[in-house]
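Reviewers of the previous submission asked for a worked example of the structure-prediction workflow described in the proposal, so we include one complete record here. The input consisted solely of the amino acid sequence. No template or homolog information was supplied to the procedure at any stage.
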Amino acid sequence: MPKARRVTTGGIDQDGRIQTSLYAWQAITAVDPDTTGRYAEDTSTGVAPLAVRQESDDRTWLRGRSAVTTGTSSGHVVAALPTGHAPTHSQLLSVPTTGGIAAPCEIMTTGDIVVRRTQSGAFSLSFDGLSYVR
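From that input alone, the workflow returned the following structure tokens.
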């Protein structure tokens, strides 16, 4: 089967997308791995937990939110992806926030999700629906 071909595996996921993945959502458990105390998983409003899923066409999807207590700092690692989900080249994503601004984050080849702009104020980073091709 060609790599770029999507395979419908049946059903619609909890976010309303047709399931094209051969793999289930895998939890992102390494939140705030540098123990800065600024980042934590946010499921307070019924949002799905932080997770990642690899699709059959090599697209990786993210979901969930990370609460930010005192604002972001450039260079901080918000979370680390589980083994096997890191991109082959760094990916820069514009991550929406509950504060109405975008926070640039870079997904490194190590799997670390790194904030690339210092911003004050408490808000959550929303990874729902963000994706990249590995």
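The domain at 26-133 is CATH 2.60.40.1830 (Immunoglobulin-like). We consider this example representative of the routine output the project will generate in years two and three.
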